[in-house]
Design a protein that fits this description.
There is one protein chain. It contains 10 helices and 16 strands. It is an alpha/beta fold. The protein folds into 2 domains: 125 residues, no CATH class; 132 residues, no CATH class. A hairpin with a 7-residue loop joins strand 13 and strand 14. Helix 4 runs antiparallel to helix 9 and helix 5 crosses helix 7. The longest helix is centred in the C-terminal third of the chain and has 40 residues. The radius of gyration is 22 Å and the shape is globular. It starts with a strand and ends with a helix.
Length: 352
């Protein structure tokens, strides 16, 4: 069972990076620098396969803009906890103890600068166009953030907080205490250059899935569930919303293997696929019906938000065309045979 997550997202406030929290437990960290198409993701995939082949506990972190590409790998075994990440823009990682804990891996050492120079005008054009499309995408996502605030104000009307807390208390009684609270980001959704993507790691791992319907009210319930983890000193993985990054999409309890997630954060067939381990939580039981005008406003905001998300996805797709064009430019300048020899030596050293 692959443990796969995202460690960043394209949000209403621009690119949101959780690298520092996701990889903080790594005792050794290899930070890969290099241009697009220079073999960073391939190298990380090889490290992940080697770790898995040795029976190490392994987590893969995929790129939130290209969910087919890796941004990082974390594994634990005989060598302790080791990580390897993409350290290029827009997710640079600030080294804490260079040389002692972190090591820079430069795939740029295997390209021919003369070839890149010949294609310099093309590279500059593609970089500028990619940046322009990302800027437009983030403008759409900022609009989504503003609309979310309006919609949430209506969705939270009539929420009976005390009644909801009573339900959370009943759930909490069934969860054993732990020995120390730890909350680690582990996103499961993204919107990127290839569209929307969902990673089903928590659905696969969980013994029980609580599917929460009810929009913003469901997010309030998740905040209370996270407070349960704090009070009971439990280790949890927290899935933040990829666009509205201050909001929770889900909380996964590692020891008891419980996954609390918003219905909107899951594929539409989740309840059917995992019927044997799904418990629904309908937030309507904690909310009084709002007035008719509120329902109209919510519907209007949602329609506008979907239009803005479609606009962002369109711009991200155009950015993707530029990005994959840049990859071809850099691939044409790479000496992949030399990189392969270096990778073999590096992987051997990582697992010494």
């Amino acid at each position: 069972m692959e443990k796969a997550y995202f460690a960043a997202s394209n949000s209403c406030d621009g690119f949101k990076n959780y690298y520092g929290e996701c990889f903080s437990r790594a005792e050794r960290l290899y930070i890969i620098k290099g241009g697009p198409g220079t073999g960073k993701s391939t190298l990380m995939r090889r490290v992940a396969e080697e770790a898995e082949g040795r029976g190490y506990y392994t987590e893969r972190y995929y790129c939130s803009s290209d969910h087919t590409s890796l941004d990082g790998v974390l594994f634990e075994g005989e060598s302790g906890c080791v990580g390897i990440i993409d350290g290029t823009f827009p997710h640079p990682y600030v080294e804490r103890l260079p040389g002692l804990c972190e090591e820079i891996v430069n795939t740029g050492g295997f390209w021919d600068r003369k070839i890149l120079k010949v294609r310099g005008e093309e590279i500059r054009r593609l970089c500028a166009e990619k940046s322009r499309h990302y800027g437009a995408a983030y403008a759409y996502l900022r609009a989504c953030g503003n609309l979310r605030a309006v919609c949430s104000s209506y969705e939270l009307q009539g929420l009976d907080g005390e009644k909801m807390k009573g339900a959370v208390t009943r759930i909490a009684k069934r969860i054993p205490d732990g020995d120390g609270f730890l909350s680690t980001p582990a996103l499961v959704n993204c919107i990127g250059m290839l569209g929307r993507a969902h990673l089903s790691s928590f659905e696969e791992q969980a013994d029980r899935i609580y599917i929460i319907s009810g929009g913003a009210a469901g997010g309030v319930l998740l905040s209370d569930i996270l407070n349960v983890a704090k009070q009971k000193k439990l280790k949890v993985r927290v899935a933040y919303h990829p666009i509205y990054h201050r909001e929770l999409e889900g909380v996964y309890f590692e020891a008891s293997r419980l996954w609390f997630a918003l219905e909107d954060a899951l594929p539409s067939d989740t309840a059917q696929r995992y019927e044997h381990k799904v418990t629904p939580i309908n937030m309507k039981r904690f909310c009084a019906d709002g007035d008719a005008s509120g329902k109209k406003e919510k519907k209007y905001c949602r329609r506008l938000s979907e239009a803005c998300i479609d606009g962002a996805l369109s711009q991200l797709a155009h950015a993707g065309e530029c990005h994959f064009g840049l990859e071809e430019c850099y691939k044409s300048a790479m000496d992949f045979s030399a990189l392969e020899e270096y990778s073999e030596r590096l992987i051997k050293r990582i697992f010494e």
